[in-house]
């Protein structure tokens, strides 16, 4: 079969990761997600091809097992790698999202926005676990579309205009 001219990843399974979801895989998959104030953390181990991505909506779950929380998602992902005897220094972590999407008409206090709290929680969790993101794109006023290829750990990012995000509450 001649695959010349085909875009990279065009024959891989494709998944859309919704808010509150997390993916752990050893398969080659193209994962797409759209973020506003939410956070995505990706983790990748090049030698084994193990990859993970989350789409977390809120900073802390207080012991919840729901992946809508940044702390729960990041710790669950790290535990997955740990169970496979992969040390933190072998994991490529990346962090995205946390935009200030809710324009209330008054200046926002940076540390009170959901996006900023998500960024702070993700950063703290990664640091506690001994993970230092090799790439970050966080904050600001624009949403983001991510495309994560789990066989390489590569993340493609597109900044979005507000009308590209979809209906409120969707992200």
Layout: helices, strands, pairs:
Blueprint: E1 13-16, E2 22-25, E3 29-35, E4 39-45, E5 50-54, H1 70-83, E6 92-97, H2 114-128, E7 135-138, E8 143-149, E9 154-160
Helix pairs in contact: 1-2
Notes on the protein architecture:
It is a single chain. By secondary structure, this protein is an alpha+beta fold. The chain has a single domain, classed as 60s Ribosomal Protein L30, Chain: A (2-Layer Sandwich). Helices cover 17% and strands 30% of the residues. It is built from two helices and nine strands, in the order E-E-E-E-E-H-E-H-E-E-E. The strands form two sheets. It has a five-stranded mixed sheet with strand order 2-5-4-6-7, with helices on one face. A four-stranded mixed sheet has the order 1-3-8-9, with no helix packed on it. Helix 1 (70-83) runs parallel beside helix 2. The chain is globular. It starts with 12 loop residues before the first strand and ends in an 11-residue tail after the last strand. The model is unreliable at 1-6 (pLDDT under 50).
Main features:
single chain; about 170 residues; alpha+beta; 60s Ribosomal Protein L30, Chain: A; 4-stranded mixed beta sheet; about 15% helix
Radius of gyration: 16 Å
Counting DSSP E segments of at least 2 residues, the number of strands comes to 9
Q: According to CATH, what is the topology? A: 60s Ribosomal Protein L30, Chain: A
Mean pLDDT: 89
- How do the helices and strands follow one another from N- to C-terminus? EEEEEHEHEEE
Task: Tell me the domain tally.
Answer: 1
Strand neighbour order, sheet with most strands? 2-5-4-6-7
Helical proportion? 10-25%
Runs in which pLDDT lies below 50 for 5 or more consecutive residues are: 1-6
> What's the architecture in CATH terms?
2-Layer Sandwich
**Class computed from helices, strands and strand pairing:** alpha+beta
């Amino acid at each position: 079969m001649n695959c010349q001219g085909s875009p990279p990843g065009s024959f891989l399974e494709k998944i859309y990761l919704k808010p509150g979801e997390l993916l752990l895989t050893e398969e080659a998959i193209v994962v797409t997600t759209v973020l506003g104030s939410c956070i995505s953390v990706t983790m990748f181990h090049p030698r084994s091809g193990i990859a993970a991505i989350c789409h977390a909506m809120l900073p802390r779950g207080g012991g919840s097992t729901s992946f809508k929380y940044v702390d729960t998602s990041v710790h669950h992902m790290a535990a997955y790698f740990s169970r496979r005897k992969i040390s933190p220094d072998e994991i490529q972590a990346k962090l995205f999202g946390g935009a200030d999407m809710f324009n209330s008409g008054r200046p926002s206090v940076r540390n009170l926005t959901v996006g900023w709290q998500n960024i702070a929680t993700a950063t703290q969790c990664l640091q506690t676990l001994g993970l230092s993101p090799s790439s970050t794109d966080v904050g600001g006023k624009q949403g983001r579309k991510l495309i994560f290829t789990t066989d390489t750990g590569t993340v493609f990012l597109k900044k979005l205009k507000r009308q590209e995000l979809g209906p409120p509450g969707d992200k």
